[in-house]
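REQUEST ID: PR-0412
SUBMITTED BY: lab tech R.K.
PRIORITY: routine
TASK: structure prediction, single protein chain
INPUT:
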Amino acid sequence: MNKAISIAKGEWINFLNAGDQYTANDTVSDVFEQLKESSILICGGTNSVDGTQQLQYQEKALDLSHIWKKMLCSHQAMFVKTELMKKHNFNIHYQYSADVDFFMKLSLSDDNFQIIDKYIINFLIDGCSQENHTKAHLEVLDIISKKIPRIEDLYQHTSFEALFMGSKESPTFNSNLFFSKMYNRMLIQLEEINQKYNNIALYGAGHISQQIQTVLGNKIIHIVDKNYEELDNPKVLSPQTLSSITFDCILICALGREKQVRDYLKNELSIPAKIIIEFNLFSK
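STATUS: complete
OUTPUT:
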């Protein structure tokens, strides 16, 4: 692919694999009729088809808010400025995921990244082996881990989920055993919190919070949630009330939403980051 890039003369580059096809004869012209002047990369949707061209599933291109969760579109549905491809090229160290590495090198913004609301490619599912799928996901995690702002967010990436959280690509995954390990780690960390702090506030009032309350007992002096008005629980108050009490720490019980909650507590309520704590279920 790098050899092809080196001799390319046009303004834009798009790579197709053998067996892939544009969805219509006018696909390319239709894409560039919608081109914005500031665009450096254009993405569209992908139809995944079998050897008889029967549609198996579809994936629309995703916006930049998903960049740390998965590839925003397949490379077959991606048109890139030739000058960018000549500047960065593909890293041949990555045998299966060089397109992901290239994508992450670009300084993309809402101004220069354009999504076309159209299925561009009929992608031929090639029946890659389980071993190759695994290698591809490992490469993606290696790429993302070098650039992601918070390493714990890596656990939300689809490649991590495919390898460790159970999917068609990890058919031997034991979900009960995995849950048991994660739950035990949470209990261990909860006991450490119990020993370290005396006056604890909780953010979140769901089932996890209720379990935590049974463990921490009287050490919990305050429970808050932004959605407190929707909850039928007089003990759950507005986060704004945190300013009227003194507490040693606030524990985030909204698992999976730690970043949003932490940012809210720090930026909108001016709570010091050092007293905002959360579970790290993937620590050893």
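NOTES: The mean pLDDT is 89.
REVIEWED BY: pending
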